[in-house]
Design a protein that fits this description.
This protein is of the alpha+beta class and 163 residues long. The chain contains four helices and seven strands; from the N terminus they run βααββαββββα. α2 crosses α4. The chain starts with a strand and ends in a 6-residue tail after the last helix.
């Protein structure tokens, strides 16, 4: 399942990038229903690489949990942030059925006449008999909700930033 999620912000791409990479914003935007652990980070020129373990606290719907043998999904997220281009390439490595679950994509911030737009594009594939499509839909719903909440939170703090 391919997807595209976009949000507009009333600021320049650089202002968005700086605000969205502030450690306090990153912590708050993940919310209370997700545990995260930074595993690795390194910088090579304008590119920052991060590996982070993500463990949502919210359980899966019962049918999905039964199909995969666990009530929650957890994963490692690998992201290459290109700070000079305001873009990133990411992939998710699932702890559950890693040979059957694939999720990857890109994120970019582009200038618009009234500010900027963040565009996230990717692909989710879950090769699990009968429930694979439902799991893909569930993952996409969680992604959409998370990005919508993060966008609202960021928009609320942007007026206080001066760059």
């Amino acid at each position: 399942m391919e997807f595209r999620i976009a949000h507009r912000f009333p600021c320049s791409p650089q202002t968005y990038w700086d605000a969205s990479h502030d450690p306090e914003y990153e912590r708050r935007s993940r919310g209370d229903d997700v545990d995260t652990e930074l595993i690795e980070t390194r910088e090579i020129g304008s590119v920052t690489f991060e590996r982070r373990r993500v463990s949502p606290r919210r359980p899966l719907p019962p049918l999905m949990a039964k199909a995969i043998g666990r009530d929650r999904l957890s994963y490692v997220q690998e992201v290459h942030f290109d700070n000079s281009k305001h873009s990133s390439v990411w992939k998710v490595l699932s702890d559950v059925l890693p040979d059957k679950v694939r999720c990857s994509g890109t994120s970019r911030v582009v200038a618009t006449p009234d500010g900027c737009e963040r565009v996230i594009e990717g692909k989710i594939e879950v090769d699990v008999f009968i429930v694979g499509g439902a799991i893909e839909k569930h993952i996409l719903e969680q992604l959409q909700r998370g990005y919508d909440n993060a966008a609202a939170m960021l928009t609320a703090i942007l007026p206080r930033r001066t760059t």
